[in-house]
Amino acid sequence: MSERSHPEALLRLRGISKSFGAVQVLAGVDLDVHAGQVTALVGDNGAGKSTLIKGIAGIHAFDDGTYTFEGSEVHVTSPKQANSLGIEVVYQDLALCDNLDVVHNMFLGRETRRRITLDETAMERRAVETLRGLSVRTLASVRQTVSSLSGGQRQTVAIARAVLWNSKLVILDEPTAALGVAQTEQVLKLVRRLAHNGLAVILISHNMNDVFEVADSIATLYLGRMAAQVDARTVNRARVVELITSGRSGALGLAAPEEAQA
């Protein structure tokens, strides 16, 4: 795989493996994620993307390998641990409550209290500051109920919730999958803004247009192995699609079976 193991990598995975019973889902995966960059994680269905991000997020503990965050080896075995490191995940279902407004969705499960009552003023202020910091101008009010929002606005709220907690790494799972052209553009601009603000971003996507629009680095999983992680400027769509479908593109990617045996 292409060498990107710089000491300043915020997240560094080496030799990561994960099995469920007799099924090995990840095998010897290496990954580097840098602050201020968008790392696209791509691969076909069943390549291991979901298992990898769930391991990073502490939902599934990895079986083998080293997990280094901010230069220190860590053992993340729960989402709470991952959150304490500054890792947040925005899954495809967004986990938003339609009957609540934007503020209460952003603070869902982490409400600010003043003694026994919710501190509505403090929560609204922080929600507005977070959205303003991300240059979000598509919401008329933070007191709108989520049920009244468009798909792109919902995705914006979910992403803003992820960065509200002094996050360092935000993982976005197919954030534009159900969006139209205009809403996709809004979300991709927000993704780039996260990186511009100094956060590390992992973007999981099947859409090559989205990947090449925002990614600094592209990491391709193939049948549970990391085929290659490359600078997005050094490859084109055809090569990435080859890596996704066969694990190899020219001299790039996994060794051919005869080479591996040599």
Report on the structure:
There is one protein chain. The chain has 262 residues and is α/β, with parallel strands linked by helices. It folds into 2 domains: 180 residues, Rossmann fold; 76 residues, no CATH class. 32% of the residues lie in helices and 26% in strands. The protein contains 9 helices and 14 strands. The strands form 4 sheets. The protein has a 6-stranded mixed β-sheet with strand order 6-9-10-3-11-12, sandwiched between helices. Helix 5 runs parallel beside helix 6. The longest helix has 16 residues. It is globular, with a radius of gyration of 19 Å.
Task: Indicate the mean pLDDT.
Answer: 92
Q: SSE string, helix = H, strand = E? A: EEEHEEHEHEEHHEHEHEEHEEH
CATH topology of the largest domain: Rossmann fold
Radius of gyration based on Cα positions = 19 Å
Largest sheet: 6 strands, mixed
The domain count comes to 2
Spatial strand arrangement across the major sheet: 6-9-10-3-11-12
CATH class of the largest domain: Alpha Beta
Summing up helix and strand content along with how strands pair, one would put the structural category as alpha/beta
